Amino acid sequence: MSIFTLRHLSLLLISALVLLHTGCGPDQSPQGGGNGAHEMVFSVELGEVSTGSITQSVSIVGTTLYGRRSLIRSEVEGLVTSVGPREGESFHQGDLLIGLDETRHKMILRQAEADLLIAQRKLEELKAGTRKEVIDQLAAEVESAKASIMKTEDDLRRTTKLVEQSIGTEAELVQAKAANLSAQAALKASLARLEEARNGAREVEIRTAEAEVNVQEAAVAEAALDLEKCRVLAPYDGVVLERYTEIGNYAEKGTDLYRLAKTDTIQAIMEVPERYGRYVKPMVTFPISVDAIPDMTMEGSIIAVVPQADAQSRNVVIRVRVPTDDPRLIGGLFLRGTLPVMTRNEATLVPYDALVLRDDARLLFIANPDQTVQMVPVTLGLTQDKVAEIVEPPLEVGTRVVVSGGEVLFPGAKYQVPSQGPPAGQGAPDGGDPNTETHAGGEGKDEPASGEQSAQ
Description:
Elements: H1 3-22, E1 39-43, E2 45-48, E3 50-73, E4 78-83, E5 90-91, E6 96-100, H2 103-128, H3 132-164, H4 170-199, H5 203-228, E7 231-233, E8 238-243, E9 250-251, E10 256-272, E11 285-290, E12 293-309, E13 316-322, E14 334-351, E15 356-358, E16 361-367, E17 373-377, E18 379-384, E19 387-392, E20 400-404, E21 414-416, E22 436-440
Parallel strand pairs: 1-21, 1-22
Antiparallel strand pairs: 2-20, 3-10, 3-14, 4-6, 4-9, 5-8, 6-7, 8-10, 10-13, 11-12, 11-14, 12-13, 14-19, 15-16, 16-17, 18-19
């Protein structure tokens, strides 16, 4: 049994005890006027059913972040020779943050420049062709080779005759033949070199040399860029959040050096319950407060809705712009916001305090003209501040409902509004019919759960 039912029964029991105390006993007869029946009259306050626009809002929380944050890492390796500002200190764009030893990178650059020069000279020679003096030299080699052939042919003929006359040996004949063949091969080689020199370099050789020049130019550019990266400069005006290195440390490629922030803009990451996520749209504004700065209030504006819920909380994450230049507002502070998620026009509205929760059911007590009440179960829609939307059943505008005192009421109970006095035909509570009691409700009222949440 719920706590609300127990409370209701306890109030009815107290009322019954009062009746036994003030009413007629078994041997007593009714006293005073009227029919002698004991009637309870409950003192209540009334409100009316109305129509209007209602907006459902949800409380959300989040954390402030700087609009631009950067983790600076080393792009080359080297010994740290100089460092810039420390945590909390500001800097300007282009300021030196970290300096690395440049010796090795300068050597690599000089080597790349030398290789480029060699490749360029080779390409120039190929494009210019063979010089005249080289061609003349090659032509002279051809003539020398021809003369050598004539000598070896003469030697071969003479050696052959000597062998035929049995004066020379077979070994001398073989040696003469080999010398002649060697002279002929030397002539062919000299002729080929001379022809190549006269025709110039082939197209494929020139293209290959051009490609080699391109490779060396890229090597020079890369070496120059690595040398430039030895000086790590600030990318924008900002402040240092963390510095991770000191002079004398060796920085590998990818080593964390600084965490920076640009402080001219503040954003917030906030989470919206998943059941409201489909209603959240960019550009919506809503009030925001900061726990650490109680006197600061501002209007946040949704920048974007992250299209994926948090894997653990299942909440929808939104990015919010926080428009303030107050230096007290820094990154990492806790935020609260009241975000409007749904609006309904021409809704049937009742005062929020008119709702009564019994056995997990939401009820209204309608005040009838005969000063009795009618208990009506209702289905809630949206809630806002001190009003609630009634979806079912349909209620007429102007219908009077009990706003205070409904916790002890029951169907058909008599009521009175303190300013109006008791119901017609009844005596005053303090001086009329002694069998008539007035009970003031509203003590210990439990508010019903708002929105779409069920009572626990």
